[in-house]
Amino acid sequence: MSVADVAYDIVGREDFSDVTYLLEIREPDLARAARPGQFVIVMSHPEGERVPLTIADFDRDRGTITLVIQAMGKTTREMQAGLRPGSSLYALVGPLGRPSEIGTAKTVVCVGGGLGVAPIYPQARALKERGAYVIGVIGFRNKTLVFWEDKFRAVCDEFIICSDDGSVGIKGLVTDGIKQATAAHPDIDELIAIGPPIMMRGCAEVTRALGIHTVVSLNPIMVDGTGMCGGCRVKVGGRTRFACVDGPEFDAHQVDFDDLMFRLARFKPEEKIALERWQQGCRIESAPSVP
User: Fold this and answer.
1) Please, how many CA atoms are within 13 Å of residue 273, restricted to the half-sphere of its CB?
2) How many structural domains are present in the chain?
3) What is the per-residue pLDDT across 242-255, written as a single tens digit (0 to 9) for each?
4) Distance between CA 236 and CA 20 in Å, rounded?
5) Residue 55 forms part of a structural domain
6) In this structure, are 103 and 146 located in the same domain?
7) I want to staple 252 with a disulfide (CB 3.0 to 4.6 A). Which of 45, 155, 201, 216 is the partner?
8) Nearest-CA neighbor of 147 among 172, 171, 120, 166?
9) E strand or H helix at 200
10) Are residues 32 and 102 in the same domain?
């Protein structure tokens, strides 16, 4: 059976903002196999880019997985424009990466910032199901960008929202939320953080001083998802690791965040050119014909 013979149907979509959207995809085998912390690689069409996306949710009964995507570059904007219920992905590979170690920690803080809010949800749910006391800390720029608040409240014993402008929750960064949580709970055993690298580094610095074991999920540039291309290499504890097979989760206090952010920025010029070309093509296609 060829890739083209397999349908990865989009069965649900929700737009949280002008750049953030959710896709629910029917793939029963993947839904049964998925675990918190894992990711998939998708292609929207045969000539499309391979895009790694963390699994934000999965429903084994419905046979679906959920992806929350931010339309920042050419491919994610192209997906935003073209994928709706009734359409399908050309290719979907996963689950990839090592699942989260849910462990035995009694009190755990789950931190998500921006798009990282979505993939921290499966960890919070799994920890709650395992019997841990879960404190959720999520951050957004403002109130209009908040999503999944009800889902988090359902699996968190305590829940803290932070916003840059103070329009919802406490005014400040997720690190302010962490400080609030740690002040109230000196018995916190572990913190898990997913979000922009600068946010995860900030979380690591707060917990380093407190001696709290901290795990972060890294998002380096990735191509094949099998460790063959080497594009997703990161420095952890002075060693080179590959996020797609050794991670994507690592000990935050061992991660070289400067190297991670440098590598993420390497192809910014090429990404900008690709986006501009795609946008120009869209304008040409939508332009009225000249009689």
Assistant:
1) 4
2) 2
3) 888 888 899 999 99
4) 30
5) yes
6) yes
7) 216
8) 120
9) helix 197-210
10) no
